[in-house]
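Customer escalation, tier 2.

The customer says the design service returned an amino acid string that "doesn't look like it belongs to this structure." They asked us to rerun it and document both sides in this ticket. The original C-alpha cells are below, unchanged.
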C-alpha cells in the first residue's frame, strides 16, 4: 500500500490541497479519512477558498481497486462509508472550491471533481468520466447525488451507464468541466479563480452554496442509510468481488 499524503500550501489565503497517493492518487480508507481531516483543518485555519489538485500527471484514478481486491468484504465495509464522507467533505465545504484537474479524473476522481464548485482541466490526453458500472459495482448514493449536482441530471444516465471517459474538448462541450487550459497553467488559473470567488462575502457565498446543494444533501440524508446498506451488499457480493478481481487482473496488473 502506498503511503497516503495530502499536502496543503497557502497561496495568498487559498489552500492548495494536493492529493499524493502512489502513481494515480487512488482512494482508499486511510486516504479518505485524511482528506476529511485536512479539509476540516483548512476550514478552521481561516482560508478563503480551496484548490483541489493532484500530484504528477493524474488528478485521481478513483478507488484503489487493488485494496478492494486484497481486502474483500471486510475492507469494503470500512471503506465505503469513508469514501462517501470524503466526497461530502469536499461537496459540503462552505467556501469556494476549485478543481485543478492536472490529469485524468476517473470514477471516484470524477466524483471529487464534481464535488467542487468549478473545474479546470488540463488540455492534452486528460480524460474525465465515471466507470464504476464497467468495473461491476454501483455508486454510493452520496457519489451519485454529487455527480447529479456537478454534471447535471440530463447527462448523468449516459455518463453512468456507458462509463465512457471524455477528452478535454468533449468534457467542455458536455459541461463536465468549465475551462480547459494548458497543463502548466491549470493550477495558477484555478488559484486565480478561487481568489476571485473568495472576494464574495464568505457568509453570502456559503449560504448560496448551501441553497444550491440543499436538494442533494436532503436526498442523501433521507436515503443514505438504506441505500448504503444495499450498496455494501452489492459491492461485497461474490459476483461483484469476482468482477473486481477480473478487472484488477485484466487491467491493473498490466499497468503495474
Amino acid at each position: 500500500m502506498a503511503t497516503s499524503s495530502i499536502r496543503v500550501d497557502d497561496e495568498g489565503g487559498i489552500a492548495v490541497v494536493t492529493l499524493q497517493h502512489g502513481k494515480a492518487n487512488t482512494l482508499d480508507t486511510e486516504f479518505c479519512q485524511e482528506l476529511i481531516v485536512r479539509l476540516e483543518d483548512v476550514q478552521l485555519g481561516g482560508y478563503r477558498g480551496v484548490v483541489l489538485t493532484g500530484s504528477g500527471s493524474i488528478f485521481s484514478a478513483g478507488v484503489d481497486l487493488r485494496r478492494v481486491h486484497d481486502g474483500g468484504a471486510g475492507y469494503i465495509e470500512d471503506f465505503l462509508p469513508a469514501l462517501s464522507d470524503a466526497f461530502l467533505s469536499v461537496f459540503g465545504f462552505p467556501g469556494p472550491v476549485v478543481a485543478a484537474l492536472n490529469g485524468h479524473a476517473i470514477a471516484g476522481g470524477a466524483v471529487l471533481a464534481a464535488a467542487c464548485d468549478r473545474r479546470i482541466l488540463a488540455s492534452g490526453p486528460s480524460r474525465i468520466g465515471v466507470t464504476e458500472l464497467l468495473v461491476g459495482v454501483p455508486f454510493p448514493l452520496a457519489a451519485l447525488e454529487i455527480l447529479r449536482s456537478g454534471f447535471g441530471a440530463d447527462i448523468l444516465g449516459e455518463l453512468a451507464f456507458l462509463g465512457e471517459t471524455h477528452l478535454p474538448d468533449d468534457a467542455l462541450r458536455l459541461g463536465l468541466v468549465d475551462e480547459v487550459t494548458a497543463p502548466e497553467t491549470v493550477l495558477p488559473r484555478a488559484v486565480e479563480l478561487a481568489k476571485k470567488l473568495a472576494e464574495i462575502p464568505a457568509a453570502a457565498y456559503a449560504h448560496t452554496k448551501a441553497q444550491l446543494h440543499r436538494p442533494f444533501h436532503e436526498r442523501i440524508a433521507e436515503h443514505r442509510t438504506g441505500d448504503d446498506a444495499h450498496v455494501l451488499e452489492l459491492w461485497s457480493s461474490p459476483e461483484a468481488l469476482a468482477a473486481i478481481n477480473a478487472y484488477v487482473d485484466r487491467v491493473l496488473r498490466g499497468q503495474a
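Tier 2 assessment: The sequence is consistent with the input. DSSP finds ten helices and ten strands in the chain. The two ends are 13 Å apart (CA to CA). Sent an explanation to the customer and offered a walkthrough call.
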